[in-house]
Design brief:
Elements: E1 2-9, E2 12-19, E3 27-31, H1 42-48, E4 53-57, H2 74-88, E5 94-99, H3 101-112, E6 117-123, H4 130-134, H5 140-148, H6 156-169, E7 177-182, H7 190-202, E8 210-215, H8 222-225, H9 227-237
Parallel strand pairs: 3-4, 3-5, 5-6, 6-7, 7-8
Antiparallel strand pairs: 1-2, 2-4
Helix pairs in contact: 1-9, 2-3, 3-6
């Protein structure tokens, strides 16, 4: 059963697609990157739905969802997602899959609702100390372009506040966690790429049961370049 609908949560409506084909199976929740909607997960979702339930949704202000008056920080987004799940009456356990900024959200969700989460997959997720340790190593042109991109949901300050929220959470999880890092980033020098992979690998520290994978042939959108790596990571967690 593929159920697409608009769901009212407090002050806004969120678009959700719930692919339920396995009545007693875990549900895979996928959260897209900054400014992206749920369509970025299509390839992965189609494969994963063969053996698990899949929940895709558009965050407020993106895709088919309405706008929200809540601040666009990870804490608010995680709260909205949890409200959505409750409205749909979907039972845990969940495996969380987050790309880029979506991975920031999924880390906070795993921290806030530990009893409901059995696994975590972070796909080229923005490191919590991105501004301090990575951004200064890039060209001035890159830094300027980066700061100007925050116009689709939340502003630059709210994005950085979200990274700080993850850092403050001081994650100490025990659930199986897979970190997948893009090994072929656009506009990165060899040195930048090495540093990126280092920062990604350091994210394994959020869980006592973590695995690190480099998607050697992928730029930032691993779900498009090498979707099988994400599908396999989810399969292993199940």
């Amino acid at each position: 059963m593929n159920n697409q609908q608009m769901v009212k949560i407090h002050d806004c409506e969120l678009y959700v697609e719930y692919i339920q084909q396995h009545s007693k199976s875990v549900t895979i929740i996928m959260d897209a990157g900054y400014g992206d909607d749920s369509t970025t997960w299509r390839q992965v979702a189609d494969e994963v739905s063969k053996y698990a339930n899949v929940l895709l949704y558009d965050r407020a202000g993106l895709g088919k969802s309405g706008t929200s008056t809540n601040r666009r920080t990870s804490k608010e987004m995680v709260r909205e997602l949890h409200q959505l799940i409750k409205q749909l009456d979907i039972a845990s356990p969940f495996i969380l899959v987050g790309h880029s900024f979506g991975g920031v959200n999924m880390q906070l969700f795993a921290s806030e609702y530990r009893d409901e989460v059995m696994g975590l997959v972070l796909v080229d997720t923005t490191p919590s100390d991105y501004r301090e340790r990575f951004l200064p190593t890039m060209s001035r042109e890159f830094q300027n372009a980066y700061s100007k991109q925050f116009v689709r949901e939340g502003n630059y300050d709210e994005f950085m506040e979200s990274l700080h929220q993850v850092k403050q959470a001081n994650l100490d999880l025990s659930i199986p966690t897979t970190i997948i890092s893009a090994g072929k980033k656009d506009f990165y020098s060899a040195e930048n790429q090495r540093l990126w992979n280092v920062l990604q690998k350091e994210m394994t520290g959020i869980s006592s049961n973590a695995t690190f994978v480099i998607a050697e042939q992928s730029a930032h959108y691993i779900q498009r370049d090498e979707p099988h790596l994400i599908v396999e990571a989810i399969r292993k967690l199940i």
